[in-house]
């Protein structure tokens, strides 16, 4: 008899870097956290998608560098969650294993990537209920997207005999195919896109992991056993986790299991893994253009144009991608988009910071934006959220000037503690111990002018920090 009251424990995987969406997605601010419309991100969408289901608080597995972004965005949507920090990326099999080891053995885990676009319709809800029953019965459940075209960017699942209503056994998994093969798979009607979403009992997944890849299981057991608490985050043991082999859940378990089934999901879905996918997921006008931001097009056809910070104009282009950010611009034909990864690789080799960070950098207390920099100076706009504060710190190579633009600032400057309001300013001499705090109810905005012989971010000595940071 089906039990509709069994709760589900979501496991949201946030490990992707999203470099195929550069320059909008960066290493320290990947696509799952970037705004796809005002106030909306793919990560928030993923969390809110679960609101209609009977679920427990989610486990979120993320890179240690993204922990404050995850915490802030969970807070934005009013959801409590257990945030598990990976010291290094080891792909999805160890990430899921870590969550499963922290769950109760009989808990049903619903594993989801944080960076997919998915419509939560009746088909989605019915499939989840179906998957829950199969997981209770000991099956490893895959969710396959009913394909709408012969895509080469996705893996495929070949469905076998029907197990029950809406449920099929799995014959095999197919890697991302070439175009001719993708057309064969699509037209056969027997294949589905592999969504990267899975459901199973925690104990069943761990049992299969021991059978098929015991070295991953052993390393994750050690990492979880030595987990430490870090201001509300669950920090996996670094030495144990670094020693863990890197493998996907598909290779490590799913393709080797005999207890596996697939449930079709007939819903709008995309992994938004490329600018082509972003183009297809955006409203397209009569000229075939998808436009985001302040854009004026003339004689432009079938193109994606995204402006983040300034006016972008196009004239006489076709089948192109134009993406503007404050510090980098991408202009590409759609044909050459697969080679974007080579551009990102070259930028990495050159040590360009545009690969990893935006001009806006997010911190647990708010964010800062670099407005301008030159020889021996840098100008920033700093926003401190209500009730938040920066660390007590000092710099050995630079001085700082602060001007309050909005709100009220509580400032420690050497031996003095002062309050500043709009249009007031202070000077922090080189070497002075200082701290900035927002005691008010609205965001505090200041302009900071740094001057000195060395003005990089690593010139900081933290003396006290409520977020546990040392650098």
Number of strands: 32
Q: Which band does the percent of strand residues land in?
A: 35-45%
The proportion of residues forming helix, as a percent range, comes to 10-25%
Largest sheet: 6 strands, antiparallel
H/I helix tally: 11
The separation of the N and C termini measures 55 Å
Give start-end ranges of low-pLDDT stretches: none
For the biggest β-sheet, the strand order reads 22-23-24-31-26-29
Structural class: alpha+beta
Model description:
- The chain has 471 residues and is an alpha+beta fold.
- It contains eleven helices and 32 strands.
- Strands 22-23-24-31-26-29 form a six-stranded antiparallel sheet, with no helix packed on it. Strands 8-11-9-10-14 form a five-stranded mixed barrel. Strands 16-18-20-21 form a four-stranded mixed sheet, covered by helices on one side.
- Strand 20 and strand 21 (329-333) form a beta hairpin.
- It is globular.
SSE inventory with pairings:
Layout: E1 8-13, E2 35-37, E3 40-41, H1 42-48, E4 59-63, H2 67-76, E5 82-86, H3 92-102, E6 108-113, E7 117-118, H4 122-136, E8 140-145, E9 156-164, E10 167-174, H5 179-188, E11 191-201, H6 202-212, H7 214-225, E12 228-230, E13 233-235, H8 238-242, H9 249-254, E14 260-265, E15 269-270, H10 275-281, E16 290-292, E17 295-298, E18 304-307, E19 312-315, E20 320-324, E21 329-333, H11 340-349, E22 360-363, E23 366-374, E24 377-384, E25 392-394, E26 398-406, E27 409-413, E28 416-420, E29 425-428, E30 434-437, E31 444-452, E32 461-464
Parallel strand pairs: 1-4, 1-6, 4-5, 5-13, 8-14, 16-18, 17-19, 18-20
Antiparallel strand pairs: 2-3, 6-11, 7-15, 8-11, 9-10, 9-11, 10-14, 12-13, 20-21, 22-23, 23-24, 24-31, 25-32, 26-29, 26-31, 27-28, 27-30
Helix pairs in contact: 3-6, 3-7, 6-7
């Amino acid at each position: 008899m089906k039990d509709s009251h069994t709760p589900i424990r979501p496991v949201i995987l946030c490990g992707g870097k999203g470099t195929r969406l550069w320059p909008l997605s960066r290493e320290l601010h990947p696509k799952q956290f970037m705004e796809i419309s005002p106030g909306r991100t793919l990560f928030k969408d993923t969390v809110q998608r679960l609101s209609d289901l009977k679920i427990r608080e989610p486990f979120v597995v993320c890179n240690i560098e993204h922990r404050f972004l995850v915490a802030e965005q969970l807070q934005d949507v009013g959801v409590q969650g257990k945030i598990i920090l990976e010291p290094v990326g080891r792909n999805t099999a160890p990430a899921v294993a870590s969550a499963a080891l922290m769950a109760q053995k009989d808990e049903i885990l619903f594993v989801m990537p944080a960076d997919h676009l998915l419509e939560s319709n009746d088909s989605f809800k019915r499939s989840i209920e179906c998957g829950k029953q199969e997981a209770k019965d000991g099956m490893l459940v895959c969710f396959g997207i009913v394909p709408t075209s012969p895509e080469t960017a996705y893996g495929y699942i070949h469905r076998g005999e029907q197990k029950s209503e809406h449920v099929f056994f799995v014959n095999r998994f197919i890697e991302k195919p070439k175009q001719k093969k993708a057309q064969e798979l699509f037209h056969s009607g027997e294949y589905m896109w592999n969504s990267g979403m899975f459901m199973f009992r925690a104990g069943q997944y761990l049992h299969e992991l021991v059978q098929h890849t015991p070295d991953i299981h052993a390393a994750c057991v050690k990492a979880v056993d030595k987990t430490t608490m870090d201001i509300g985050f669950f920090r996996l043991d670094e030495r144990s986790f670094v020693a863990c082999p890197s493998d996907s859940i598909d290779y490590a378990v799913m393709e080797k299991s005999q207890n596996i089934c697939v449930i079709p999901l007939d819903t709008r879905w995309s992994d938004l893994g490329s600018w082509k996918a972003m183009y297809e997921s955006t409203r397209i006008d009569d000229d075939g253009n998808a436009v985001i931001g302040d854009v004026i097009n003339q004689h432009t056809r079938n193109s994606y144009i995204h402006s983040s910070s300034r006016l972008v104009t196009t004239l006489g282009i076709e089948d192109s991608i134009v993406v503007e950010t404050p510090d980098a611009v991408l202009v590409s034909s759609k044909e050459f988009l697969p080679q974007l990864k080579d551009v990102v690789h070259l930028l990495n080799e050159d040590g360009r910071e545009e690969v990893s960070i935006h001009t806006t950098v997010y911190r647990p207390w708010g964010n800062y934006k670099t407005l301008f920099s030159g020889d021996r100076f840098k100008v920033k706009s700093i926003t401190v959220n209500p009730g938040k504060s920066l660390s007590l710190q000092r710099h050995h190579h630079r001085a700082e000037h602060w001007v309050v633009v909005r709100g009220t600032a509580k400032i420690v400057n050497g031996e003095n503690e002062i309050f500043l309001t709009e249009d007031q300013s202070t000077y922090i001499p080189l070497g002075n111990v200082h701290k900035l705090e927002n005691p008010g109810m609205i965001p505090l905005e200041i302009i900071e002018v740094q001057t000195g012989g060395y003005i990089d971010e690593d010139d900081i000595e933290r003396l006290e920090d409520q977020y546990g940071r040392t650098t």
